């Protein structure tokens, strides 16, 4: 599993003194059910830090904290090395973190001027801090975030630059082929039926099976088919870790005869076909008994090809923007917004279900949208002044420019609309889906991807038209999230979420699954902890987006744009501040 490799951060560097070495970052948590989409490495640099030393410059260290979802408690994640006598440190020690698109990972970077060898941070001078999310770093141009350091009133504390780099070994696969010569004969009447079993070694010296080849019948000189295996499965990304290969003779009754074994490593195999990759197959028992024993045959590597899978982060780093649109159900079945029983009730003390769903999803997606301007639409209401029914109106009242600034702007427009429109009906989805589809159809080059969040209380009125719209939209760079609020039966929604049966309209099937539906009631935390409810909801509705995004890019043959060149921070020669 993950977390076995030593993070880059565990190298010795700088004046570590009594300060603890890098925390064992990204340690695999057995209780965690989700496997990280990938790992990212964070590099930290600062410019123009405060100078707290009288006769020399500060000796900075960076301490990273992460925040638990439920109780908001900050926990120390790790520390960089200390760099002596500089206000412009480029820290060598990295932070390696698990990255999930669908989770909001709050981060806090604290900076201190280290004055002694004490690991206790209160003994050192505080230089300021920076708050952000992991999504904010990854979603910034070139996955490079620059922000001011804050925390000391009245002082300019400088800036921090954090860069995220996806770890390559997470997504490399290798295509390998082997053959063998002069293997020991194990069968009484015929030759052997050989196959290979590959094991990776674990930190405690034990071995875990990671691949079996097919059986080649009745030969002592087999050629096995080429096979593909991820580098993570083969050696957990550690190129020097031992890989043990056993050779067996297959028997129908399952009591396969051991022919022999050899060991190698990813680094050795990566040399490809050469004299280094011809291995003697040794049977330790035979070797111990027979003085003249040489080997039980040889296994030769015929080919070794590395393939890198492109990932969601490659596109984000290359500049693909995720555009977020929200559509809110203003039909009368929601109840009168001035009544506490209404799903649209404007409680001054807490968010209603619409507000919670909107914030939960929007706060994560906004990190991947550089201008933070979101179109916000409503459907199923009568609009002033003439009371006409609309299934596609701008919440901010401006049909020419339905954009709201940030999730706060969307919330504000939503509350304003509740005061001005009359809840009506019916519940039609097709108009808002077609609205977003028109935009998505105009940019099919992979530079933009559209996510529509529909929040609704109920039974859909235009099922046939909605299915038609979804089938058409499945060819476009877009995904649809539907959150059902309230107590209604949502059977029809399950049909739109093509997880079980791919959605179709008039005999045409959707090109790919683009709809994810969840009922909000499944996420209401019994203890009333809304933060937890929102985190769980976001996790479930957003988890499918990266794969839906990649399926569009793959079908269209769109490769990620190259990332901007790596940033080399300028070093300013600064006068020491007195």
From TrEMBL:
It comes from the Eukaryota. The keyword Metal-binding applies. GO terms for biological process: cellular response to calcium ion. Residues 20-147, 156-279 form the C2 domain. Keywords: Calcium, Metal-binding, Phosphoprotein, Repeat. GO terms for molecular function: calcium-dependent phospholipid binding; metal ion binding. One of its GO terms (cellular component) is plasma membrane. The keyword Phosphoprotein applies. Residues 1-20 are annotated as: Disordered. Residues 323-524 form the VWFA domain. InterPro entries: C2_dom (IPR000008), C2_domain_sf (IPR035892), C2B_Copine (IPR037768), Copine (IPR045052), Copine_C (IPR010734), VWF_A (IPR002035), vWFA_dom_sf (IPR036465). Probable calcium-dependent phospholipid-binding protein that may play a role in calcium-mediated intracellular processes. PANTHER family: COPINE, COPINE-8. Belongs to the copine family. This is Copine-8.
